[in-house]
Write a structure and sequence with these properties.
2 domains; about 35% helix; two-stranded antiparallel sheet; globular
Length: about 350
């Protein structure tokens, strides 16, 4: 997605209190005025996080997609390009969010709704509707200068370096119900933002399936192998499944199992682990799909590869095609009564 020519067409700000605590809802009736500098700052704040996070979602409803409120109001934004319509539907979205602002940990915050134009996506120029909710205010210092000295004063405001909750709604693939990019960085309240207010579901494309399968492997390694086996077994498994994803353009269950599992015990434990935790992973292991190499690269950096020792030392094992675990040997020294690692190498690298 190319945001280099993006512009803000409309922007409005409402304030959402916590309905559970009887905090009020404040609805603006006028659009925000923007100068070039403020527009540039806001575009960077709105769009920068989505340059990295581009997992696509779609709107959902159990019976009729048109009954999904955010989908319905967003469709009207795109269909009726008119400031009055924009203001009216932004108020409807704010009212809809207020109805779900019931968790005791949700704090009062601003709801910013904007229309962004001239975004390049899949070789077409599209518009976006952005919906952003701020919840936590950060402290900052204001500098004021007069004739005799410079003074500092403190204030609180929105931190423009991070988005707590936000989504971009794309007027692309309209026949399939619009597409959504979503960010939710306050996990305790995910239910109210993602599942209730937006009511969106991940699109089960190759990117989503690659990440879900890697999530299963990572969870199995962390929760099963790390507690039942030595570090070498865990790191060898991590290395093998990363190499599988890097070396194959597509996933297929039989080749995956043949490549990854060194013995039947670990193989059986893996499939039993998945069966017990099916609700946590949005994938069928029998599916075949193309492997998303960009997602493999991102997930590889999150894999556990540190051995922490009780002697205030750590060993870092690189995950690579040569399998660093083959060059580490674990043993026990009876004389000292301590375990040890023996490391093999050809030469030191400066």
């Amino acid at each position: 997605m190319d945001f280099s020519e993006a512009k803000i067409n409309y922007l409005i700000i409402h304030e959402i209190g916590n309905k559970l605590r009887d905090e009020k809802l404040f609805l603006s009736s006028e659009l925000q005025d923007l100068d070039d500098n403020l527009e540039m700052i806001l575009l960077n704040y709105f769009l920068k996080p989505f340059m990295v996070n581009q997992e696509l979602f779609s709107f959902f409803h159990n019976t009729n997609l048109n009954l999904n409120e955010v989908y319905s109001y967003s469709s009207k934004f795109f269909n009726d390009k008119n400031a009055d319509i924009f203001i009216k539907n932004s108020k409807n979205i704010a009212l809809h969010l207020y109805e779900y602002t019931l968790h005791p940990k949700i704090t009062r915050g601003e709801l910013i709704i904007t229309e962004i134009t001239d975004v390049k996506y899949n070789d077409e120029i599209i518009n976006l509707i952005g919906i952003f909710k701020s919840e936590n205010k950060d402290s900052f210092l204001k500098v004021m200068k007069n004739n005799n000295k410079i003074n500092l004063s403190s204030d609180k405001g929105i931190n423009i370096s991070k988005i707590e909750k936000g989504c971009l709604i794309l007027n692309s693939d309209i026949n399939n119900g619009l597409r959504v990019l979503n960010i939710d960085n306050t996990s305790q309240s995910t239910e109210y933002w993602t599942n209730k207010f937006l009511n969106i579901r991940p699109i089960k494309n190759s990117s989503h399936k690659t990440k879900e399968l890697m999530k299963i492997c990572k969870a199995f390694s962390n929760e099963v192998l790390s507690s039942k086996y030595d570090n070498e077994v865990e790191f060898s498994f991590n290395n093998d499944y990363i190499n599988y994803f890097e070396d194959n353009e597509s996933y297929e269950i039989n080749k995956f199992a043949e490549t990854i599992f060194k013995n039947d015990d670990i193989k059986n434990e893996f499939f039993s682990f998945h069966e017990r935790n099916k609700e946590s992973f949005d994938i069928d292991l029998l599916d075949s799909f193309s492997v998303s190499q960009s997602d493999v690269k991102k997930e590889k950096n999150k894999i556990k590869n540190i051995i922490k020792l009780d002697t205030n030392m750590e060993l870092k094992v690189l995950l690579n095609k040569e399998d660093g675990t083959k060059n580490i040997e674990k043993g026990f020294d009876k004389e000292k009564g301590m375990s040890y690692y023996k490391i093999y190498f050809n030469e030191e690298i400066n």
